[in-house]
Amino acid sequence: MPGCGGDAPAAATTPPAASPTASPSSTAALCAVGQPVTGGPVTDPNGPFAHQVVLAHSTDGLSITDSRMVIDHASVPDGVRLPDGTLRLYYVDGQSGAIGVARVDGDSVTLIGPLSMNGVRGPAGMADPDAVLLPDGRIRLYYLNNFGPPGGPQRGICWADSTDGERFTLGGLAIQFSNQETVTDPSVARLANGVWLMAASRGTSSLLARSSDGAVFTSETSIGLGGVPELAALDDGRVRIYVCGAGIVAYASPDEGKTWTREATVVPPSTLNARIVCDPSRVAGAARFIYKIQP
User: Fold this and answer.
1) Same domain for 188 and 89
2) Parallel, antiparallel or unpaired: strands 167-175 and 116-117
3) Please, is 65 exposed, middle or buried when counting C-beta atoms within 10 Å of its C-beta (0-12, 13-18, 19+)?
4) What is the C-alpha separation between 17 and 14, in angstroms, rounded?
5) Confidence grade of residue 18 (pLDDT, cut at 50, 70, 90)
6) What is the pTM of this model?
């Protein structure tokens, strides 16, 4: 699974590049729902089985308190607040390889099990979940599909919707970035002006793409801030990006991601005595911050 991105100074984005397009037949393959996972633990010593999910409090998104490990053998977490006020936490389950779901009530975390996609419980090939609450109360999940060893099916970043946060219906292909085998960890935010931004990781840097409807993203650009990004729309119209470098670092942009200014180190390196601190997620409207560690 993806590791932490590098640390780099703030920079403007590179000029937009033409986004790759897929034919209708290949689009279906990029987002095809896999069969239920059947394997055991992911044995890579630096993979999800060696990771832990941490839940913390954060009122401003720039500092955290009360960090505690809540799920062992789990990685790439992301959280969303449901209309009823409860939280759903999504993660890659290192014991099965599926995307797992947990319910968060206050400081209590209850594991629900693998999510379902088009009626398939725990489909293989899905990774790196990112959840967004839509204006109508549905949960939209963006994720990397066809994740696996090189030489397998081409990867795509797809989206699916759910009314309960556990059972999803496939929507379609959001984007296939160039050099798709090097891209992981999508994150999406809807800005106050209605523009949707997606960030994704390419090693120690991040990519951005844009959308008017949250379904189809184009206009790939690259920023050199760090990898494994998380986007958060701010109340004042700016957008924040959290990236992995020396810990988890926040930058803010007043112009839809064209330029960025460093704000703060949100999670210092070696927090909880971890060797790796990465995979940030700020839960909108919940004063919660989630991340992964590798002890």
Assistant:
1) yes
2) parallel
3) exposed
4) 8
5) very low
6) 0.91
